[in-house]
Amino acid sequence: MQHAVGAPLPPPHRPGHGPVGGPHHAPQPGGPVPPPPIPPAPPGPRTPPAHPAQGWAAPGPDQQPAPPSREVTGHFRLPPGGLVPVPAQPVEPGTGTATLAVLLIGPAGAGKTTVAKLWAARRRVPTAHVSLDDVREWVRSGFADPQAGWNDQSEAQYRLARRTCGFAARNFLANGISCILDDAVFPDRPVIGLGGWKRHVGPGLLPVVLLPGLEIVLERNAARSGNRRLSDEEVARIHGRMAGWYGSGLPIIDNSTYDVETTARVLDDVLARALASPPSW
Q: What is each CA distance from 59 to 51, 62, 63, 64, 162, in whole angstroms?
């Protein structure tokens, strides 16, 4: 249909007379914009629109658009302010969370195994305890008992047990687990004693000597049973040889008047100082 120039525009299409905004019925500039047609409601109950007069349903609470922000990267909102400070680390006494290898030296009856177990159990990080006597007693048939006399077979079993303990310690350390070993190492046998442990475990091994008085060692040895209980003469002989550690430069703990918990705490303090200033041995 044609209209004369200057004639009034025809009225807008009413519902039922074709879709508004189609290619042949675009609304003219300046004219009223009618709302789009309301689609038929699906069967079933339906929530009435928030604005029935306009024919639009209000968005729900979970549909509200978030206000624009200048500090947004993707979908993650950046924290306000400057750099996030690094949290302060508490200063812990003793060895803290350090991964270390310890060799606890002492005569029979010094309390090495008991102290080592408690020290390992009280640490907040994984720590293993490896006892030379426990490993040596893995040998059941053909076991060479030192109480029957020292011979080549018992010497060979001790050497094998030390190497086995060293392998275990290196395996623990390689997996981030600290390790404490205990052995009656004599200062007058450096090649198979302290030197052997250094070869088996590594130069980072921290040796500490646990050496109470002879009367304490004799008393504790008397409370032992089985093949770990030695004669008083043998205990006195071993204790005398252990006295050679004095003047060696290794840290020595005299736990004659300490209980097990106190000894374990003193051991941790000694090891902390050894970490700060490793002894030369």
A: 11, 8, 6, 7, 76
Instruction: Show me where the domains of the chain are located.
Output: 101-275
228-278 confidence digits (pLDDT tens): 788 889 889 999 999 999 988 899 999 999 999 999 999 999 999 999 887
d(CA 41, CA 38): 9
What is the tens place of the pLDDT at every residue in 5-44? 444 555 555 544 444 444 444 444 455 555 555 555 555 5
Interior angle at CA 79, CA 74 and CA 83, nearest 5: 115
Q: 3-class SS at 57?
A: coil
Q: Is the pTM of this model over 0.70?
A: no
Asked whether the beta carbons of 87 and 99 are under 8 A apart, the reply is no
* Separation between Cα atoms, residue 94 and residue 166, nearest integer Å: 25
- We find that the CATH architecture of domain 101-275 is 3-Layer(aba) Sandwich (3.40)
E strands within the chain?
Answer: 72-73, 76-77, 101-105, 127-131, 178-183, 206-210, 252-253
Q: 207 forms bridges with which residues in the sheet?
A: 103
Report residue 125: phi and psi, to 5°: -115, 155
For 211-225, how does the pLDDT look when each residue is reduced to its tens digit (9 = 90+)?
Answer: 999 999 999 888 887
Could you give the C-alpha distances from 46 to 41, 43, 57, 63, 217, in angstroms and in order? 8, 8, 11, 18, 90
